Each structure stands twice: as structure tokens, then as C-alpha cells.
Amino acid sequence: MLIGPPGSGKSTLGRLLSERLGLGFRDTDADVEAVAGKPVSDIFVEDGETRFRELEHEAVRRALAEHDGVLSLGGGAVLHEETQALLAGHHVVYLQVGLADAVQRVGLASARPLLVLNPRSQLKKLMEERRPVYERLAVVTVVTDKREPEELADEIVKGLPA
């Protein structure tokens, strides 16, 4: 299970890990979009962040119950206390990324709803607020700055329990 802020590489690494491990890949943001029938950015605008977080929590709950492979959680999914409880006992990998790398990966012209006004400042604030939660939930922390996905996947695979 991969957690981390926007731009940490959860989706990219999730797909790569699923290939290496011969397991399925599931992204809870994609699950939310499938249930809502619209992109995350539209859910925020049309239905509000509270509704998005409800859908996100339900997507995580369902994915943990149904999916046995690699799971990538949306950056804010860990903020929900019930979601935090659901993650206990799972092999949670926190993908830690610095602000400069996150900005480069996300882009400042991003369609990400929480980064609309002053994206660099908003991303920094999100990262600082969420870091303690990511660190507390993680079994393993992997620093992704200036590293290639293949190298990161190798490190994660080596750190998996036998």
C-alpha cells in the first residue's frame, strides 16, 4: 500500500510494483472517479471536499476488503481517522518527496483541486500538515527525491516481508 503527498510517485510506482510482483494494481482516486462518474477535480467543484472525502474513505475501505495487490491511496486519504484504523496491520509504504521534486512532478499548472491558488505554497502546506500522519502509518519510508521509479521499486520490493 502506497501513501504520500501529490507528486510522490504513488501511481507510477504502484503500477511498476504490481508488474514486478505479478499482482493487480488499484488506485483509490480512480475508484472514486468511477463511482462518481467524473474526475476528482469536478467532484471538488460540484460536490465539495467533504463529499470527496466520504467517497475516498469508502473507496479505501472497499479496496482493502476486495483487493489483494498493490494499492495506491490518494494523498489525503490518510486524513480520515477510520481510514487510518483500517490501514493498521497492512504493509504501508510512505513515499516521501521534497517540495522541489513534488512541484516538478505535479506541475504548477495542475488540475489538482487543492492546489488551485498558489500551488507551490498550497503543496508545501499540505505536505507539512500530512507528514506526521504519513510517518505514523508507515511501516517503511522511501525517499523518492532525484531517484528513478525502477530504483525505488527495487528498494520497496527488498523491504517487503517474506
UniProtKB/TrEMBL annotation:
Residues bound to Mg(2+): 11
Xref: PROSITE patterns: SHIKIMATE_KINASE
Residues that hold substrate according to the record: 29, 53, 75, 130
One Gene Ontology term of the molecular function aspect: kinase activity
Residues that span the membrane, as ranges: none
Predominant location: cytoplasm
Pathway(s) the chain acts in: Metabolic intermediate biosynthesis; chorismate biosynthesis; chorismate from D-erythrose 4-phosphate and phosphoenolpyruvate: step 5/7
Keyword Disulfide bond: no
Subcellular location: Cytoplasm
Entry-linked InterPro entries: P-loop_NTPase (IPR027417), Shikimate/glucono_kinase (IPR031322), Shikimate_kinase/TSH1 (IPR000623), Shikimate_kinase_CS (IPR023000)
Reactions this protein catalyses: shikimate + ATP = 3-phosphoshikimate + ADP + H(+)
Cofactor(s) named in the record: Mg(2+)
Keywords: Amino-acid biosynthesis, Aromatic amino acid biosynthesis, ATP-binding, Cytoplasm, Kinase, Magnesium, Metal-binding, Nucleotide-binding, Transferase
Cofactor note: Binds 1 Mg(2+) ion per subunit.
UniProt function note: Catalyzes the specific phosphorylation of the 3-hydroxyl group of shikimic acid using ATP as a cosubstrate.
Subunit composition and interactions: Monomer.
Similarity comment: family membership: Belongs to the shikimate kinase family.
UniProt protein name: Shikimate kinase
Lineage: Bacteria, Bacillati, Actinomycetota, Actinomycetes, Streptosporangiales
Gene name of this polypeptide: aroK
